[in-house]
Amino acid sequence: MHLRAYRTSILLGLFFTLLLSAFWFMPQLAFIIFLSLLLQLLLLPAVNQLNRRLPRALAAGLVLAAFVGLGFVLLGLVSSSFVPTFSRFITDFPQITEKFQNLPLLQESEFLHNELGNVWGEIKSTGITALRSSLQLLLSLFSKVIDFVIILFVTFYLLKDGEEIKQYLVTRFPQRDTDRVLKLFNNILGALRTYICSQLVICLITGIIVFLYFTVRDLPYASVFAMVSGIAEFIPVLGPTVASAFGTLLTATVEPFIALQTAGFYLLLTQINHNLVYPTLIGKSLNLHPIAIILGIILGGELLGATGMFLAVPFIVICKLVIEDIYENRLLQKKLQRESRWLAKKPTETQK
């Protein structure tokens, strides 16, 4: 095997291995850069639209300023409505647990009481830990002023000079494979943009629908369950399942029949999201198997905690695209080697 023919593949593998391993060795710096990249991908279409009429730097500044303003407005709304409800939920949680354990169905069966009690304990622990970790993750972005300012500056320069930075990185690879590397970078950025935009839309839709359901049914802690369900959508497969079970079991403390209706509601919502909303927004652009997603989320949680669970799917997307590119290039090199050997033999056969 001629290593020179696979030099670009080796460099790509090393480049992305070092890039992803930065989250383990330099998590704070890597997270700032990655979050800035996601914000850049989210805001890039708006900047490109404004850039038709305004200079690039001005367009990037205006879009980023509008995004920050919207963020502070949303933060104010969350602080005024969600935080008090969440505090009340945490205060009332011991009473909710006691009501759940005293349900008639559990009292009549010792097996169900023990088994569902264990399940309840696991879901309670997982749900509260995930929610607190998620809130800490979101609030830490605004509590660390310096990191927040750095993220804004990095995002601004990515919006302004992102194309030049990408072209510079591409030129670091062998010149004969420039088009290939550029295509790979564009595929990765396009997949990440599709993922982050789609996830935000799904989270927003899910949170609003859950909030409306709990409000219309006059069930308590509507904003808490809406926040749990919305955030859980960022952890595909596992997140919605845990959020659905958490919401259903908690509504059982109000009335068992309502819990059945809530279970049906969550089941319908999950089916609509996975069979209608997801295919419409994402289509087959990511094409990830549920097993790969589940294992990736578990591994991400083991390595980086809540942050790793949120970043698992983007990491899997990047690894998938890089591996596919290297594999396709290997097949191409093999084909070229076979053709070159065939052409080398052909003159000899002609001479005979």
UniProtKB/TrEMBL annotation:
Protein name: AI-2E family transporter
Biological process annotations from GO: transmembrane transport
Transmembrane segments: 12-37, 57-78, 137-159, 192-214, 221-239, 245-269
Stated family: Belongs to the autoinducer-2 exporter (AI-2E) (TC 2.A.86) family.
Matching InterPro entries: AI-2E-like
Membrane topology: Multi-pass membrane protein
Origin: domain of life: Bacteria
Chief localisation class: membrane
Keyword vocabulary terms for this entry: Cell membrane, Membrane, Transmembrane, Transmembrane helix, Transport
GO cellular component, one term: plasma membrane
Organism: Selenomonas caprae
Any one Pfam family match given in the protein's UniProt record, by short name: AI-2E_transport
Compartments, as annotated in UniProt: Cell membrane
